[in-house]
Amino acid sequence: MLNSDESLASEVEVEVLGQRYAFKSASSPEQVQRVAEFVNELAGDLRVVFPSASSHRISILAVMQLGYELLLLRDEYQILRKRLEKESERLLQLIE
Fold it and tell me: What is the phi/psi pair of residue 39, to 5°?
């Protein structure tokens, strides 16, 4: 989403946790806005659970939650990928 190659990126401004941020992104402005909305929704959910937490703490909790979900999805992806490879090999053997 974010990109350091300025020739491929367009600038997108979004609000996250009440702060305005400008990003250079190769993704569409709509996609960047969608990510910001997702983060804000997660932060709002965390704010309900931890009403006295600072914005900084809410940010850290959101990053930890997203990291956790990402790792679960990566693990699931690897399992599915291995299963697909085994099934592909089995089907190739049937064809031969």
Answer: -65, -45
Strand extents, DSSP E, the chain: 10-16, 19-25
Query: Residue 20 — φ and ψ, nearest 5°?
Result: -90, 135
20 contacts 13 by C-beta, under 8 angstroms: yes
Rounded CA-CA distance 11/43 in Å is: 24
Is 55 inside a domain boundary?
A: yes
7 pLDDT above the threshold of 80: no
Residue 82 domain flag: yes
Residue 1 lies in a domain: no
How many structural domains does the chain have? Answer: 1
What is the domain extent for residue 75?
A: 10-95
Asked whether the beta carbons of 11 and 24 are under 8 A apart, the reply is yes
4 token code pair: 């350091």
Task: Look up the pTM and report it.
Answer: 0.76
Alpha carbon distance 5, 75 (integer Å):
30
